[in-house]
Each structure stands twice: as C-alpha cells, then as structure tokens.
C-alpha cells in the first residue's frame, strides 16, 4: 500500500513539475524569441524547444524531490 502511495506522489510531482515547467518555458521562450529577433517560423520551433526543455527539467526535479520526500515519515 505504501509503495502505491509513493508512486502516486512521484507521478503527481512529475506531472505538476511538467505543467509548471511548460508554462514557464513558454513564457521565457516567447520572451527570448522576441528579444533575439528569431526569424519567421523558427520562433515556433524555438518556443517549443524551450517549453519542452523546461517541462522536462522541472518535472525531473519535482519528481526526484517527491521521491526523496516520500521516504520520510513525520
């Protein structure tokens, strides 16, 4: 039972981290694409890469934090 609960917490952490990272990455990618004057349709690619990269990193770290925190009992 405890393993299922821990797995659910880690999965939720990864999902929340991915959502937050995606939102932050989209905003930051848009800002940088405009700031550096990325031409034409390359803006969409640049924003997409930034969004996915941020979502992956945030999801990884929030999932790892959830996994570490899962073993502690208070």
UniProtKB/TrEMBL annotation:
Q: Where in the cell is it found?
A: Membrane
**Membrane-crossing residues?**
12-31, 51-70
Q: InterPro entries from the entry? A: Romo1/Mgr2 (IPR018450)
The record's annotation in Pfam families points to:
Romo1 (PF10247)
Q: Does the keyword DNA damage apply?
A: no
Gene Ontology cellular-component terms for this entry are:
TIM23 mitochondrial import inner membrane translocase complex
- Domain of life, per UniProt, equals Eukaryota
Name the keywords, alphabetized: Membrane, Transmembrane, Transmembrane helix
- Any one of the GO BP annotations: protein import into mitochondrial matrix
Q: What family does the entry list?
A: Belongs to the MGR2 family.
What is this protein's name?
Answer: Reactive oxygen species modulator 1
């Amino acid at each position: 039972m405890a393993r299922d609960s821990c797995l659910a917490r880690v999965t939720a952490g990864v999902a929340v981290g991915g959502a937050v990272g995606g939102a932050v990455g989209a905003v930051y990618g848009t800002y940088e694409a405009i700031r550096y004057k990325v031409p034409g349709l390359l803006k969409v690619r640049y924003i997409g890469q930034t969004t996915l990269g941020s979502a992956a990193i945030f999801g990884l770290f929030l999932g790892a934090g959830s996994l570490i925190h899962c073993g502690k009992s208070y």
